[in-house]
Amino acid sequence: MGISLYTPYVYPQTGQSTKTKRVSTGDGTHKKNLSDNMVIIYEDESHIRDYQTLRATWSVKGRQKQIPTYGHHATVSLLGGVNIETGEFLCMETNQCNAQAFLQFLQYTLDQYPDKHVVMVLDNAKIHRAKILQPFFHEHEERLTLIFLPPYSPNLNLVERIWGWLKESVIANRFHANRKELRESIVSFLEHLTQFPEKVLQRIGQIVMSEN
């Protein structure tokens, strides 16, 4: 008996079921200029859909792995941000990724760093520039700076690497019977990130520097 690398297939399963400041970003040198009272967060939203994503995997030779599906897909919507200095990952679940949800995430982020100036790097999505956000930006202009990335450049947003890691770990070649199971898998993954921030830093390409 041998093993070979196969891509699984799915089969039907019956049953129920603002004001900005210039900050060096992108090459790791920004950490050298990071003041003691400043924190840089890369932010983005993601929809985790249980599409039974298929990836090549090891299987007994001649036996292709099978992933069941009910034919409908659960979705969990998240807003997240990664601290590029500590590896801390902030995450908030929402029913809909809109400007109101983003406003709540901004407040949540500021609450996590009450004594810090938050520099948030993000894309140019409309929800990040909505009119309802302007009073909040004005009120917190001394504590919050937004750095908008160039259009169509998700590769520059470091948090995208965390979303990719999550999807790779949670939904690739896995079956979730319902949204509850999908959400539990996501929570388990997020707890793993909390326990191992150094893995987060490695994933986003930041080198863990010694204090010596």
Automatic annotation (TrEMBL):
Listed SUPFAM superfamilies: Ribonuclease H-like (SSF53098)
Pfam families xref list: DDE_3
Family annotation (Gene3D superfamilies): Ribonuclease H-like superfamily/Ribonuclease H (3.30.420.10)
Record-linked InterPro entries: RNaseH-like_sf, RNaseH_sf, Tc1-like_DDE_dom, Transpos_IS630-like
Residue intervals of the Tc1-like transposase DDE domain: 40-183
GO molecular function: nucleic acid binding
Protein name from the UniProt record: Tc1-like transposase DDE domain-containing protein
